[in-house]
Structure formats: C-alpha cells, structure tokens
C-alpha cells in the first residue's frame, strides 16, 4: 500500500517551493491541495474492494501524474454550485488560467443577444472545454459541438465531463461513425462533422438541438464548409437555434462577409512566452542543385538538437516537436536523429503520422526518463488534432504535403508546398502550452512574409463528387452551381463533376437538381462512387458478403503497417496471403485468415497481426464498416434484412445472453472512459523502430487491456453467435466466384483502368509501368500485391504482337502522384470484360474492336471477334436489366442466367492481342449506366444478338457449369435455412429441417402423429 506521507514533502517542494510554483505557499490552493492528499490517503487505507486497491496501489507520483485532472480526484467533497460546477479554489485553479473566463458576462450577453456568433480564440484560451460548460450553466440542455476528427470528440467529451465532475453519468457524451455514448439524458454531445451532416438529411432543421458549436472551422475541409452553409440556412428557418463558430486562426474577414450580422468575439490565449528564431539552412543559398539530389538534409535538425543539449541542462524538462511535410522526410531525419541520440544517450526519437498504428501513435504521449528528452517527428497532424504535453521546443520546416485533384486526368497529386502563416502560428504555439518555449523556423523571415495567410480550402483542391451528391441528397431543389458556398469552388471542376455523375447515372440528366435511384442509394453509403457501385453490383450477383469486405478494406487505411514493408520477417511471413489477382483479393485473404485465427484460437490474434505487420484495429474497423454497409443496403431493400431473421431464430436463453453482452459492452466502455490512459515512462535507448518491443510481462498486461475486451465484444455482437462459421463460409473464393467478383470490380472502378507496358522486366524491385487513358507511364505502387509479385503480369506469350485469350488489364482504385504517378489498390481483370462495361465500342475492322478510343483488341479471326462482341452485348444487356430491377426493388427472380453467361464469357478461348492508342480522346465518358439506367449506345454497325448465337460452348461444358451453380445455390439455401433456426432431423420426412425454436419442432412432430392417427381411423 502506498504511503502518501512519505512523498508529501516531495510533492509540496515540487509544486510550491520550486523556481516557478503553481501557487504561493499557505494560499487557499495550497491548503486544499494538502486536504486533497489526505483524502486520497484515507481512500486508499479504507478501500475494501480488491479492484479499487489494485487501481490505487502504485507509486503515488505515477498515479498523480496519470490523473487527467486533479480536481476530479477530490470526489464529492469538492463544493459545487447549483449546476454541479466545482466552486472550490482547488477546482477553480484550472479555470482561472483559461482566458475565456475573462469578461465572461459580457461575452455571454453577446451570445444571448445574437443568433450567430464567431469566436476567434487563440490557442489555449479554453474555447473547446470551457464554452460548453458555460452554455450548460446558462440553461441550454441540447448542445452539440462538432469536431473534424473522431479522436477530438472522445477526448473533449472525457475532459469536459471530468472538469464538471459528470464522468459518472451520461450528461456529456460523444458520437462518431462507429461509436457513441449518447443516451436520453445527454445534454452536451461532441460529434464529428460527418455525423451531423447525416442527421441533417433526415432533420434539416436539427430540431434535436438548441445550440450548435462548430469548432476548428479554420481547417476548411469540405464537410466543415458544407455545414457552415447549411446551418446558415437552418438558422434562417429556426430563429431559436444558436450557432457558434470557433477557431484559433480563423479568417475573420471571410466569415464576417458570410455572416454580416454576427459579432466576432476575440479571446486571447494563455500561451507562455515563445522565443522565435529564423534559421534558414545555408544549403539552399550555397548549392541550389543539392536539394535535387537529396530530398531533405537532416543536418539542420541534428544541429538544433546539439544546440539544445548545450544551452539547456538536461535537468530542465522539455521535449522537441519537429514538423515535417511527409513520411519520406520523417524517415530520413529520424535515422539521422537516432544516430545522434545513440551517441549522446540524451534523446528518444519518435515519429507521428496518420499511417502509424494507433498503438504506435500513442507512444508520443508517454514520458521520457529523467535526464532524457523526446524528439517527436510529425506531420501537420500535431498542429491541432493532437496536443502533446511537455513540448518546449518546436522545429518548423515550413513545409506540408497537400492533396490536389486534377479532374481532367483523374489524378490525385500529393504536392510539397509552403505552409500558410496561420499554420506557422499554430506550430509555434505548440511550444508555449505548458511553459516558456522556443520555436526554430528553418526558413527566413522573408520567406515567412511571402507565405499565404491561410491554407487553400479543400473545396478548391479535391474531387467534388461526394460534395455534389451530398448537396443533391438534401433535396434543396436548387442547382449545385447556385448553392451558397462559404467559398465557391472553381466552376470548371464543378461542371466536369456534374457531367461525370450524369454519365454514371448518379445525377438525372434531364433535371440536374435531383439524383437518380442509383444516386439516392450512393448518397447513403459513406464511401466514394466507385466503391458504392461495387456494392450495388454485388447485390445483383449475390456476392455481397465478399464485396462488403472489399469495399470496407478499400475505405480504410491499409491494414499493413508502414514499418512492415521494411521488416524482412513480416514480408516473408505474409507471402501466403498475397494474391496473384491483386490488392482486393489480398485483402480478402487477410480478413478471412484473421477470422480463422480468431475462430480456431490456436494463436492470439494480436500476436498474429503484429508478427505479420498488420494493424488489428483496421480489421475491427473493416468489420464495423461491413455491418454499416449491409444495414444501409437493407434499409434500401437491396438485400433482405439479416438481423431480424437472426433474432427470430434465437432461443430465449440466447436472447438473454445477447442482451447481457450488450450491457457488458456498455459498462466496459463506461469504465474505459473513466479510467483514462495511464501515463507510462519510455525506456531509455528505445526509438521509433524498436519502441514496440515488449517483454512477456508487458505483453500479458496488454492482452488484459479494457480496449481489447471492448473490441472482442463488439466483434462478437456484430458477427453473432453462429456468425463466425457463416463469415468464413461466405469468404470462400472459388474460380466462379472470383470471376463474378472481377466483373463487379471492373464495373465499379471503370474508367480507372490501364494497359501493362510490354517492355517491363517484370522483376521485383523495378518499376512496373502501365498506361491509362488519361495518363501514360504510371507505376504500380511497390507495396501493392502486384508490385510485390510483378512476375504474374507476364504471360508466356505476352508481347506487343502476341495473341492470347489470357490478356489482362489493370484496374485501380486511385491514381496518386507523389514522387511518381502510382496506381494504388490495383488488380488484374480479363481484358474482354471491357467489352461489357466500356462506354464506347467501335468496330475498326472485321477483326478489331476499339474500346473508349484507347484499347484495341485484335482477334485472329473475324468470327471470334463477332462471337466475343455478341456474347459481351448479351451479358451487358442482362446485367443492366438486373441492376435496373434491383434499384426498383423488383422481384426479378433468379440471377443464375446472368451468372452462367458471365462465367461462360470469361472462359472464351478466342486469341487476341492488345494495343493501345497513343492519343485517346480527351473527353472519355464514364460508367456502365446512361442517365436513365439503360445500356449505353454502341456503334450503329453493332447489333446485340439473341442468346441463340451465343451459346456455342458445348452441351458438356454447359452441364458442368449448371451443376456447379446448382451446387453453390443449394449450399447458399442451406445456409439461409440454418440461419432461420435450429437443426432437426425428421424420421418421417427423412431429411434435415430447421425451426426457429423447439416449439415449432414439436408442432411438426405432432403433425405427423395426427396424420398417422387419421390414416389409422
């Protein structure tokens, strides 16, 4: 048991007798602090519950440092006002250091008298934590505060609840894409911008809220800008709705122009003094060619670490935060800093960026050992999303990577650029949160003055497909071009987006203000158009379960950690998971193997994923996304509702167990939120590349983590009692299923396809080039499945003139240009499938077909060309009819004929060669659909033949294929029957039956007995 008396003198010296005491000795704060220690000691001594003892039985200094807020540890002994807000001097100490409390009466008077208010609050003024409390005290009970990121929602909800001593009820809650703590008692809700946008679709007036707070509006992402515009209109309809916009570096002029009657409240921050030094590297001045050879020079960063070692004693705590523009730059500087740290033994080098695992990201919050500093190398994620304590020094490179989209060539470019002045100020402010700091700017003051004031908003540099669909889904009945944007996008990309969506059948070509039935469903799915189309096509072909995994996997960050691609053991260990068909099929294998490991229990899944360099949190996220996608498709009647059938099939005992698991999950989340994160101390000598190494004791402690229990329970509830066997069975991938999936992928990803360059050497470690209709000489990403196994792209008879029935095209999810134009999430699909989905097909000669003016298929014989085209047209026609009926929720019957045609078409053995046209048309159209959902018009010389001219494969092959499809159909029907209830073998019927419960089985048995009695009579 800890002895607080032993450490009381140390604590008092640290806090009240140091060079910078937090309060004068013998002050009211000092007295309450002593009383607080006494209450804690009494609590430990009197604790009778073993679990409570275990929580408190640790080194007292560690427990004190781990406390989220010391005011929360005093419990009910702290005096509170009528609203439940702490009033004692110990709890009020935190509020006294928050500048938002100054002149609070005047500021709240402004908020009461004005419907819309803009708050320009500097860093550290307390706008995100204190303002919600003031609004609650003012009598508002339905408050929502948006945040651009999920991590900010959960962290702020916990912080505000702790400060108000409300952490043991649900007055303060959060709601994100996959998680929420909201109940009927919630008065203050922190939620993401995307969640609020989806609420506005069903409730445009947002009647559920009295006050809406939009925080961090300076980030200017698309969701935030759209919310600002929609909420201005909502305030015009609802005069009782309050709207508060907050930011640390807001563009006041822009927002004042958009809200001319809204007052602007400026609140100064509480930053400590920050010394600012401009230290431009001399390399740019002396040798301009050097930066072409070296991406970044790590020397200036190491020199600053040396300067800190010389000027500031190691006894003075204070870590370093370095802002760099990308992962490549972080890797180069990290290696140099690590070498310096191993020499001096005074530094621990860590890295922080979005592709790291959650566990690796959390390491930056751990404390460094005494006499050692942390050097954290980060992207701009640490500007606003993450606040790291103990930062005293900031090194600002002045650079960032911005994503830009070029609609003319459908390319995303990740470009290096100078940051804006607002971002530079944000970075500098990181050094003055907890004490005086220093900001080293690796650029000149002249370069700073040339920077833009604010970062270019997303609406001017990213793809606008989702924005247009979201606006039209609001049923505003206005032209998208006339929408009252906060800052209007460029008209050229907006017009191109509209035309593309009309060509894909998403926007009605006869009325641009409305969505088609396809567009209405796409608007409900929180993914891009290509992935949404995949899901709808999979519903048509009864391949939804596997397609759900593909769609979810392509919608989250790659489950493979960035570190794993540099680890030979990880690369070798997951070779059996790589698929020759490409990334989507590799992701299917990874997910299915993870399910198998969980189901069999031979190896712990956390150890398995770490051994293979896989982030397990991504797999849990995929599981949640799969369920979310399925629920949306069920709500739109594209697939039957599974959950209702499963619930009806459960016995009363199983239902009780399910309810108990849900209750246990709620309690676990509540406990995890209360306990917070325990502060750990890093090991000296461990850096970014070895930080995840643990001994067995740490491993066993990790496996008992509450978060893992939560993930396990959530997974169990999502998959259901018998769900594991069903999921494993549904991810079985035979040749026929793979063929149907390839058509689903091709139809969804089109027109994102390319031709492999026949001059490639097809060896690992070398660039593998391809050519797309919009951009030639693009490169398969080296970390993709095909990039790691380029030999599968080579056919034995593949060259520019060879004829083969096995030619493939490369379809891809994203064309991303960084140092090179890379094809990401790529897969191989038969080239003939392009005849089914191409927007334009031209018969160049009796043996040559040209698709989209880009790819030419040269057949050896004219009859082979005719037969392939006739077969493709038949598949195309039946496929589009099936999709049209599915969108109308018609009972279109069995899709077996379509499946049979697709498989037979893929098995055609008509040799052909592929050639690409060097100068394809610039305005290549999109999609499988026309605006009215009908098949695209082909060349006037081409006629869709009847089925009689297509079925020429032979009776034996047809019979074999029909038998395969019948067997698969029987297995699917058996699975559906099993889902309906319990298995029961009836001796009279001489077959296995399934009933919802035992009562139905008994009734069935009695029915046979009654029949026998009637026959005897």
From TrEMBL:
PROSITE patterns linked to this entry: HELICASE_ATP_BIND_1 (PS51192), HELICASE_CTER (PS51194), ZINC_FINGER_C2H2_1 (PS00028)
Entry-linked CDD domains: SF2_C_RHA
Lineage: Eukaryota, Metazoa, Ecdysozoa, Nematoda, Chromadorea
Record-linked Gene3D superfamilies: 1.20.120.1080, P-loop containing nucleotide triphosphate hydrolases
Protein known as: ATP-dependent RNA helicase DHX34
Top-rank taxon, per record: Eukaryota
Helicase ATP-binding domain span: 108-268
Residues covered by the Helicase C-terminal domain: 307-475
């Amino acid at each position: 048991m800890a002895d607080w008396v032993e450490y009381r003198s140390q604590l008092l010296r640290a806090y009240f007798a140091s060079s910078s005491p937090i309060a004068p000795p013998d002050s009211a704060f000092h007295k309450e602090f002593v009383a607080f220690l006494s209450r804690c000691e009494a609590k430990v001594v009197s604790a009778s519950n073993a679990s409570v003892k275990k929580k408190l039985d640790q080194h007292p200094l560690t427990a004190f440092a781990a406390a989220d807020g010391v005011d929360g540890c005093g419990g009910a002994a702290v005096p509170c006002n009528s609203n439940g807000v702490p009033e004692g001097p110990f709890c009020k100490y935190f509020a006294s250091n928050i500048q938002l409390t100054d002149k609070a009466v005047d500021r709240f008077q402004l908020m009461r008298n004005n419907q819309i208010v803009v708050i320009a609050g500097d860093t550290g003024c307390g706008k995100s934590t204190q303002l919600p409390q003031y609004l609650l005290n003012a009598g508002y009970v339905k408050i929502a505060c948006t945040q651009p990121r999920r991590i900010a929602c959960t962290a702020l909800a916990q912080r505000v609840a702790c400060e108000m001593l409300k952490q043991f009820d649900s007055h303060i809650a959060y709601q994100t894409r996959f998680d929420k703590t909201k109940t009927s008692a919630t008065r203050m809700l922190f939620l993401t911008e995307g969640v609020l946008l989806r609420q506005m679709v069903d409730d445009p007036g947002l009647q559920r809220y009295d006050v809406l707070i939009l925080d961090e509006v300076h980030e200017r992402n698309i969701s935030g800008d759209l919310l600002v515009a929609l909420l201005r209109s909502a305030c015009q309809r609802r005069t009782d709705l309050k709207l508060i916009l907050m930011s640390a570096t807001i563009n006041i002029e822009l927002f004042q122009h958009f809200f001319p009657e809204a007052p602007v409240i400026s609140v100064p921050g509480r930053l400590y003094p920050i010394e600012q030094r401009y230290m431009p590297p001399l390399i740019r001045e002396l040798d301009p060619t050097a930066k072409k050879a070296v991406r970044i020079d790590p020397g200036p960063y190491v020199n600053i670490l040396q300067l800190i070692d010389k000027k500031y004693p190691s006894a003075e705590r204070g870590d370093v935060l370095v802002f760099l523009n990308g992962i490549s730059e972080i890797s180069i500087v990290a290696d140099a800093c690590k070498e310096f740290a191993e020499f001096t033994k005074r530094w621990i080098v860590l890295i922080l960026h979005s592709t790291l695992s959650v566990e690796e990201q959390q390491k930056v919050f751990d404390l460094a050992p005494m006499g050692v500093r942390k050097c954290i190398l980060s992207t701009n994620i640490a500007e606003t999303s993450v606040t790291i304590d103990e930062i005293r020094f900031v090194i600002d490179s002045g650079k960032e990577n911005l994503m830009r989209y070029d609609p003319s060539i459908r390319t995303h470019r990740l470009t290096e650029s100078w940051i804006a002045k607002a971002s530079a100020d944000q970075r500098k402010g990181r050094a003055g949160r907890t004490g005086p700091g220093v900001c080293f700017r690796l650029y000149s003051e002249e370069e700073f003055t040339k920077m833009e004031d604010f970062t270019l908003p997303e609406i001017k540099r990213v793809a606008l497909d989702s924005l247009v669909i979201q606006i039209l889904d609001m049923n505003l009945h206005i032209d998208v071009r006339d929408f009252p944007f906060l800052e209007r996008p460029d008209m050229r990309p907006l017009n191109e987006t509209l035309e593309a969506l009309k060509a894909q059948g998403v926007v009605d070509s006869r009325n641009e203000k409305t969505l088609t039935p396809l567009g209405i469903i796409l608007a409900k799915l929180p993914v891009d158009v290509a992935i949404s189309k995949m899901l709808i096509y999979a519903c048509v072909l009864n391949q939804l379960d596997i397609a759900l995994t593909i769609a979810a996997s392509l919608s989250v960050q790659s489950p493979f950690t960035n570190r794993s691609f540099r680890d030979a053991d990880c690369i070798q260990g997951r070779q059996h998971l790589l698929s020759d068909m490409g990334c989507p099929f590799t992701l299917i294998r990874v997910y299915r193997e993870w399910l198998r490991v969980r189901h069999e229990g031979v190896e712990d899944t956390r150890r398995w994923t770490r051994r293979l360099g896989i982030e397990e949190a991504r797999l849990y996220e995929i599981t949640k996304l799969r369920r979310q996608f399925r629920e949306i498709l069920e709500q739109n009647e594209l697939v039957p509702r599974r959950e209702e059938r499963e619930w009806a099939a459960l016995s009363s005992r199983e239902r009780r167990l399910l309810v108990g698991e849900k209750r246990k999950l709620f309690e676990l989340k509540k406990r995890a939120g209360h306990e917070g994160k325990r502060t750990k101390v890093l090991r000296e000598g461990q850096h970014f590349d070895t930080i995840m190494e643990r001994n067995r004791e740490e491993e066993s402690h990790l496996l008992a983590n509450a978060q893992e229990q939560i993930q396990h329970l959530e997974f169990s509830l999502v998959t259901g009692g018998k769900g594991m066997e069903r999921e494993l069975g549904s991810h079985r991938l035979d040749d026929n299923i793979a063929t149907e999936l390839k058509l689903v992928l091709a139809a969804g990803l089109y027109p994102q396809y390319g031709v492999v360059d026949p001059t490639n050497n097809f060896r690992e470690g070398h660039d593998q080039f391809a050519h797309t209709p919009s951009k030639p000489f693009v490169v398969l990403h080296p970390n993709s499945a095909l990039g790691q196994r380029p030999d599968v792209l080579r056919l034995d008879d593949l060259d520019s003139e060879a004829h083969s029935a096995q030619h493939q095209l490369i379809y891809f999810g994203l064309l991303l240009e960084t140092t090179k134009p890379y094809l990401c999430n790529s897969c191989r699909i038969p080239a003939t499938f392009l005849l089914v989905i191409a927007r334009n097909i031209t018969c160049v000669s009796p043996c040559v077909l040209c698709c989209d003016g880009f790819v030419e298929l040269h057949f050896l014989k004219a009859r082979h060309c005719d037969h392939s085209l006739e077969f493709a047209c038949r598949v195309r026609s039946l496929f589009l009819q099936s999709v049209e009926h599915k969108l109308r929720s018609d009972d279109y019957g069995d899709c077996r004929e379509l499946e049979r045609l697709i498989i037979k078409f893929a098995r055609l053995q008509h040799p052909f060669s592929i050639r690409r046209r060097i100068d394809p048309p610039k305005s290549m159209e999109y999609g499988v659909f026309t605006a009215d959902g009908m098949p695209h018009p082909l060349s006037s010389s081409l006629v869709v033949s009847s089925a009689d001219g297509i079925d020429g494969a032979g009776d034996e092959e047809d019979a074999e294929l029909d038998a395969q499809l019948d067997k698969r159909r029987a297995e699917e029907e058996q699975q559906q029957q099993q889902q309906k209830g319990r298995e029961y073998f009836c001796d009279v019927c001489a077959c296995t039956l399934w009933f919802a419960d035992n009562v139905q089985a008994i009734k069935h048995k009695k029915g046979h007995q009654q029949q026998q009695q009637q026959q005897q009579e």
